[in-house]
Description:
By secondary structure, the chain is of the alpha/beta class. It is 27% helix and 20% strand.
Amino acid sequence: MAKKxxxxxxxDEYFLKLAMLAxxxxxxxxxxxxxxxxxxxxxxxxxxxxSLPGQPHCDEVGCLIVDNHCVRTNHAEIxxxxxxxxxxxxxxxxxxxxxxxxxxxxxxxxxxxxIKRVVVFSDYHDTLATKFYTESGVKIDKLSMPAKTINxxxxxxxxxxxxxxxx
Length: 167
């Protein structure tokens, strides 16, 4: 009997799901955002919104609100760019997969870094990102949110067995 084959995600769905997974590390309760920088189907860097290294996180001490924005956190796009820079990775001509449309500042940073395509499934309030991306020749693809589940059925894989929990 043939096993029912699950639908294989497209590359865009795959990388958006990675951005969703990265967003689970976010520490600002106002919004969880994930960003994955990809070139030639290769992940260069990831980021999520969270506080500066060594500083308290919003989910520990509360948000620091200025003009209706939490300024305690770096946004996912900035953290992905910083991760790439820290490791000497050139992000020119890459695609940014982001759970939410960028804020104006993050859009400007991605444009300046040479990002050529942005893929998102959710918008963001009070942003000029679309205007700046369009004027700078950055392609924007707004897709549907991919499935929130990961389809991994350990029991159906004949070469796998469940590991024991370590103490």
